[in-house]
Every structure is written in structure tokens, then in C-alpha cells.
Amino acid sequence: MGPHRRRSWAPRGQTPVLHQRGRSRLKVSVIGALSISPGRHRVRAWFAFEPQASFDGAHILAFLRALLRSLRCPVVLVWDRLQAHRGEPIKSWLAANDHRIHAELLPAYAPELNPVEMIWGYAKTNPLANFAPTTLDALITRTKSATQAISQDQSLLRSMLRHAPLSLRLK
To answer: N or C end: fewer C-beta atoms under 10 angstroms in the chain?
Structure first.
């Protein structure tokens, strides 16, 4: 739970000090998705959190099911080549739901094409920068508030999509 350190400002002679717990293995895993409305008027961000665990196939599948319940239109899913995205149970679920969801994989080692990676970079260097939580609950609360703020910022979400050199056209 060490902070992502960033340069900051302080009054002259008062060096900022970040207090943190040493050798903590506490973590919060986050999965995210961006959706563009069919009319391309609105971009939405979707997030799920998993304290003290990593997202495996079962967790990703639960996220995808929740995403499909929320989105009433067909979905084209563009994601990276994480092994959990390509393995079971995801592969068989995508095949069974090919009428509602179609998956496309990004090229290997291309985080610059993934707008969700840009969201993680922004979150770590802006709202979560220099934050040294002392408890897991503090980390969860701050991460949820950061992702909620990002979700509500249309101009930021659109800029993430524009920055990724994909053939997605936004008005």
C-alpha cells in the first residue's frame, strides 16, 4: 500500500512527509470498462473492486454479466491479452452469448491502445498520488471515490478515448 509519489507543493521550510505502513501486502484490485452510447453522445465508465484478491476468470465473468445487465444494446468488447480474458470460463461464456457481446483482443504489449490503462495511469498520478493509506478500508474508500469522480467527468473520459489511437469516432 505504498503511495505513488508525486512532486507537490508545500510552504518553504516545511517538507511534506508521507507516513506509511512498512511491508504491507494489502491491496485492492480494480477492473474497469468504458462504454460509448450508440448515438455516441455519452461515455460511461464501469468499475468493480476486489479487496485482497486478483481478478480471475470467475471475477471477470461476474463483472461482464453485470455490465450486460446494465447495457441494453449489443456490446463490442475490446480488451488486452490478459490470460484471464482468453481462458475459461470467459471463452465459453462469450461463445454462448455471441448474440449480445463480441470480443476483440488488442495487440500484444499495446497499453497505449487501451483507454482503460490511461484511466489507471491518471488515477495513480492524480487523485491517488501521495496517498499513503494505513488501512485497507481507507484504500478502498479513496479508490472508489477516485473512480467515481473519473466516471462523472465526460471530458476526461472522452479525452482517454481520443488519446487511444483506435478507430472509435467520437463527436
So the answer is: C
pTM passes above 0.70: yes
The enclosing H or E element of 65 equals helix 57-70
Which three cell numbers mark 17? 512527509
- Nine-digit cell string for 42: 455519452
What does the pLDDT average to over 51-79? 92
- 90 is a domain residue: yes
Question: What value does the CA radius of gyration of the chain take, rounded to a whole number of Å?
Answer: 18
> Is there a domain that residue 23 lies in?
no
Q: Give me the CATH number covering residue 97.
A: 3.30.420
Residue 47 lies in a domain: yes
| Confidence (pLDDT) at 170 | 46
